[in-house]
């Protein structure tokens, strides 16, 4: 096929590989610059172990982890429709292992774990004590799930709010709920209501002085002219708390 | 026409040889051993020989599709395969499979653009070669609808589109019926009248005898015999070779005449 | 130079014309469109705005997977169709340089891939806009989605360039397309298996996972100019290197 002999073919192959390796090595700075576009590049053992037997390993390696995660999320929803607790839990887990980036998976996964699964486990009338135990167990599963999310994303208002809701609604732990609402309110881009709810929960815990100090601090940070900030509501609540604090 | 340099020989093969690799275990095979021949401008050379005798290899070397292992191939004094040589050559491969989705005109247009002809020249030349090859009526039809004979005539048309002084034809009559061969022969016979030098390979002895000024019989990569038909056959060349009686009958029946 | 560019353009146009008539192109385009339209079933899940994210993800995944197949298979088929049909002899015996022929082939395949990505991308964009209007949300930014499609196109043309290099010395379309696909897989997983010490030879392959269209979409914001410049420069260097090697090999190829 070539005009020259096997020797020159061999030499060409060697030179080609050497040149390509050299180009790859020289382009490392460009690769690092361009790498900001891509997801993490390191080999994820947890991804490969999780995907083993579930399909998607090659797609994960092929840079299609969003698609793989979406596929597993869809399967989780199909399992949710059948109220299959084990499958739903496993598939939610697989989804966030495949692609930890969308908060959507963490938030909705936690809601399923905390809110839907206790009902699946308690089909029919059950003693109140048992109901409390199941709610607590599932709440802890959901909270641990969200803590994993925090490890990936760092402090995020949405994750703290979800944790606060679980403490409040599933565990009836107002103290912890208040703590997490405060953590949420302290994050950049937190929704304004997080700060207001923290104050309300402090009121429920009969700590109006603390709530008042908090709301006064919050009022100073609220922008004028932003309807969502609800300065009028905050001012109204400060007035109420001033009355309550005076009555103490 | 592309102007050929004024040299004595249109084609010059001097000690030309070509080896191919036959695989790791088999080493190298000699397709052409040693070939020396010369062809003057305006002549027609026929290369005869059995399969594997080196006919196609010789034509490909002249067309620049492969490099000689030994010796030289010159086209009007330029090394075959060089830019200068390729500008002087038109090539028709054996049984080409042209793009079926193109019409005859579109394919010739494509070939003209590749030869870097100017647009107005392309339009003019395409019309000319279509008329010359008898394909004007079929020019707007897709090549998928062309018969084998029409495809070969189109192949010849693309080979002469840019008016090369040398045309190389690899088994141009391959797969053609007697009527198709007749039509093709007419076209090939016309080329030297325009000053074009022709080299073609063939298995068809009668065709070669009819068309060629010089004949080279190849075997085992060497020239076994070479010369004019008269020199080789010892006949009076004025006596034109006759088609066989069956061929005559066949052509009469289907309505083709010389 | 102008004449060379003209010949490259002519060959590219012819290659694209032929490519659009390949059954393979039609098959992969239909499968791609089918996979994208299947995402319409997602409305049954009532995901809300997240449905748009899923449509975008599935769409990009389909384009990436099928596009890689198209890049390797179409390149090999278009190259060998002309070689085995001997039409390439009519071209290469003319004053057409081997590198012009090769770059013309590459440009034709690149144009095919651009049309493939643009058509499927357009279909997905229409779905996103339509479904977004129905849901009353803008879950996926269309300009960022198109940016992701452009990154994907860069990746696919790099696969085509690698396959074309193999074509220049391979003996059949089957070998060339398989080798092209294997090289694409190696280049994709390269960062996962390192590239230092004993695995230094892996750096002979470009890092295809850099061209992560999904990440562009997931980030929900346009990439920084420097990052885009880096990606394009990386792509350009590798296309030039593969193209140069392919031209060198093809120049010495005999028929």
Structural notes for this entry:
The complex is a heterotrimer of chains A (248), B (258) and C (255). Chain A is built from 13 helices and no strands. Chain A is mainly alpha-helical and 248 residues long. Chain A has three domains: 7-99, no CATH class; 100-175; 191-248, no CATH class. In chain A, helix 9 (157-169) runs antiparallel to helix 10. Chain B is an alpha/beta fold and 258 residues long. In chain B, 33% of the residues lie in helices and 24% in strands. Chain B is built from nine helices and ten strands. The longest helix of chain B is centred in the middle third of the chain and has 14 residues, at 119-132. Chain C is mainly alpha-helical and 255 residues long. Helices cover 76% and strands 0% of the residues of chain C. Chain C is built from nine helices and no strands. Chain C has helices spanning 2-20, 23-38, 50-84, 87-92, 98-135, 142-169, 173-189, 213-219, 225-251. In chain C, helix 1 (2-20) packs across helix 5, helix 2 (23-38) runs antiparallel to helix 3 and helix 6 (142-169) crosses helix 7 (173-189). The chains are: A mainly alpha (248), B alpha/beta (258), C mainly alpha (255). At the B-C interface, strand 6, helix 3 and helix 5 of B face helix 1 and helix 4 of C.
Descriptors:
heterotrimer, A: 248 residues, mainly alpha, 3 domains, 13 helices, flat, C: 255 residues, 76% helix
Structural class of chain C: mainly alpha
- By DSSP, the count of extended strands of chain C is 0
Spans of chain A with pLDDT under 50 lasting ≥5 residues?
A: none
Query: For the terminal residues of chain C, how far apart are their CA atoms?
Result: 27 Å
- Return the string of H and E elements of chain C: HHHHHHHHH
Mean pLDDT of chain C: 90
Q: Determine the mean pLDDT of chain A.
A: 87
Order of helices and strands of chain A: HHHHHHHHHHHHH
For the largest beta-sheet of chain C, the strand count, sense and barrel status come to: none
**What's the domain count of chain A?**
3
- Bulk shape of chain A: flat
Number of helices, where a helix is a run of at least 4 consecutive DSSP H or I residues of chain C: 9
Helix fraction bin of chain C: over 70%
Oligomer category: heterotrimer
Distance between the termini of chain A: 98 Å
